[in-house]
């Protein structure tokens, strides 16, 4: 399979380039040049597979000669052996809808599902090369911990994680900053997540710097993460009892990566009806999908910090589709977004979006109410992000199998849970030790030069 950039489809890339680079040299996102759409019969053949077997079936066509099929099986088995559930995820019934629990990995968030695989992909790649790689990643809370757990202790790999200082939960921070591995570096940036993300993008764009440190990235724009995350949409579909009814997924969404993975699954032939973009008060994606106005505003701090984002990086892949795969038009659109902070979607393109996507926005109080009501009715504790996905179905009239993606364990957001239901949600026993561990991170101004100097000094 060949890959191109959303901003220039004249050049072809292999999976290895796409995985290691993360971001194209022209600033665009990598996307597969073609897709094999599975027939109903082919999809039915997947039904009896274990999660790991299904992952191999979905992922293998995307990676070409990066590794053999047998080696891929070993990498997948190793990646998912650290999860608390044999089949990685679990679907539970909660009232008139279902919740797909994606937080059974080592850092209690859906990011583990793709990140463990990426960590082992890096190890496989470096075993066959003499290179050393420095991974630089921005996090709004969960990506950093998942990336660190996947990379820590691995040879010829360093990881630098930028998080917004004092804008993630204490548990999210401790999961990142209490490790003792010498190849892990945490940077608290005096700014918000969008600032962290812009710093990382600027470093990628600086070819001299990125080549000097052999820089790679594992943010949600990395195509390897997208294909890994598409697997659980397939797996969940097979867990649905009545597949004659439409299947809808509500996805708590900040950077548009997780829901884009669902969109990829649909393009591969999975019969998904609607994908619901569920946002908090930082609702740029809701405004884009419901009104056609993708306009950045100030980032608000909320009880769902992983969604406190105004620039949704993966949205560019959807813009590329809306432009009928016209990369020059996509380049112009992205320049306009950067210069003017907006992208107006015309009626024709909005209708095209709404064939696949709907959206809903939840206020802080609505989110707390969903946590409270769900606990009182069903004795289930939802984290604030999952609560937003759960509540989105109450704002939309959708029949069928309504599935909410549970993206994080509630214990990662103890203040919100305490406020909503006056309950302390404990960490799983095997992780409680982090509460007493010493933290190690540098606090640095939102300054590209200073961040680069720090990374150069440690890489």
How would you portray this structure in words?
The chain has 459 residues and is α/β, with parallel strands linked by helices. The protein has a domain of 218 residues: Rossmann fold (3-Layer(aba) Sandwich), CATH 3.40.50. Helices cover 45% and strands 17% of the residues. It contains 19 helices and 16 strands. The strands form four sheets. The chain has a six-stranded mixed beta sheet with strand order 4-5-15-10-11-14, with helices on both faces. Helix 5 runs parallel beside helix 6 and helix 10 packs across helix 11. The chain is globular, with a radius of gyration of 20 Å.
Topology diagram in text:
Blueprint: E1 3-5, E2 8-13, H1 15-21, E3 30-32, H2 40-45, H3 51-63, H4 69-80, E4 90-94, E5 97-101, H5 111-127, E6 133-138, H6 143-151, E7 157-164, H7 170-177, E8 184-190, H8 193-205, H9 207-212, E9 215-216, H10 223-239, E10 247-252, H11 257-267, E11 275-279, H12 284-291, E12 293-295, H13 315-322, H14 327-340, E13 342-344, H15 347-356, E14 357-361, H16 364-378, H17 384-395, E15 401-406, H18 414-421, E16 442-445, H19 448-458
Parallel strand pairs: 5-15, 6-7, 6-9, 7-8, 8-16, 10-11, 10-15, 11-14
Antiparallel strand pairs: 1-2, 1-3, 4-5, 12-13
Which structural class do the helices and strands define? Answer: alpha/beta
CATH topology of the domain at 90-108 and 223-421: Rossmann fold
- CATH structural architecture of the domain at 90-108 and 223-421: 3-Layer(aba) Sandwich
Helix percent reads 40-55%
> Which residue ranges are poorly predicted, with pLDDT under 50 across at least 5 consecutive positions?
none
Count every beta strand, where a strand is a DSSP E run of 2 or more residues.
16
- What's the main sheet like? 6 strands, mixed
Task: Calculate the terminal CA-CA distance, rounded to whole Å.
Answer: 33 Å
Gross morphology: globular
What is the C-alpha radius of gyration, as a whole number of Å?
20 Å
As laid out across the biggest beta sheet, the strand order is 4-5-15-10-11-14
CATH level 1 name of the domain at 90-108 and 223-421: Alpha Beta
What proportion strand?
A: 15-25%
**Count of runs of 4 or more consecutive helical residues:** 19
Taking all residues together, what is the mean pLDDT? 95
